[in-house]
Amino acid sequence: MFEGPLQDVIDEFARLPGIGPKSAQRIALHLLEVDPADLERFQNALGRLHEGVAFCRICHNISQEDVCRICADSSRDGGLICVVEESKDIQVIERTGEYRGRYHVLGGALDPLNGMGPKELNVTALVQRIGGALPDVATGEVDANNQPLYQPAPEVSEVIIATDPNTEGEATASYLGRLLKDFPGLTVSRLASGIPMGGDLEFVDELTLSRAFAGRTMLSGN
Asked: Domain Toprim, which positions (predicted)?
């Protein structure tokens, strides 16, 4: 055990996911030795984290603007929506180069034991996108009940469910499949086998993920 601020920094790093006590100690000792200007830059970056990060009003991806770069890209196929649990999953899928549609970030997966139900996820926003309406937040216009007005959304032909292949992800995929199965003209698909059960998309290699996209299975379709 070290004393004072150094041990405080070690303790804080050890609280981060994927960082154990030894890794936390190495990081803290490294920061103790770096140039003060580099440490100040690191501190400033951390200080701006919450101020400079927003969430896309369309897909809920982490963004620097009101609309993320993917939703703003007119070359992307607006008829395809890939549903993922977290923004980090988008980065994994984008690295494959196999997908040119849009995304929707749920913000987690169904996990009733930990208080994560449909209302805690961005499910309503997904249904609104598929139903052909998006909240027109950009204009600031509201209705008589002070709710945002809606604008037409691109017609969606397929929703690809790319939740993690674990218990919570499978439960979420099944729920979304049932929820979306009666939308006319909509195909709902799930990423194919190739992704190991119990794993996370974050740790799947690009080749495996590419094959999973190519061989995805249909949950419902019209």
From this structure: 79-196
Q: How far apart are CA 131 and CA 120, in angstroms?
A: 20
Model pTM above 0.85: no
Nearest to 98 by CA among 42, 34, 31, 162: 162
Rounded to the nearest 10 degrees, how much is the dihedral formed by the CA atoms of 151, 156, 162, 168?
60
Mean pLDDT of the chain: 85
4-52 folds as Helicase, Ruva Protein; domain 3 (1.10.8)
Per-residue model confidence (pLDDT) at position 187: 94
75-220: CATH architecture = 3-Layer(aba) Sandwich (3.40)
Please count the other Cβ atoms lying within 10 Å of the Cβ belonging to residue 180: 21
The rounded distance, in Å, linking the Cα atoms of 103 and 78 is 9
User: Mean pLDDT per 10-residue run, the chain (222 residues)?
Assistant: 86 91 93 90 84 87 91 93 96 93 96 92 92 56 57 78 90 93 90 74 79 77 70
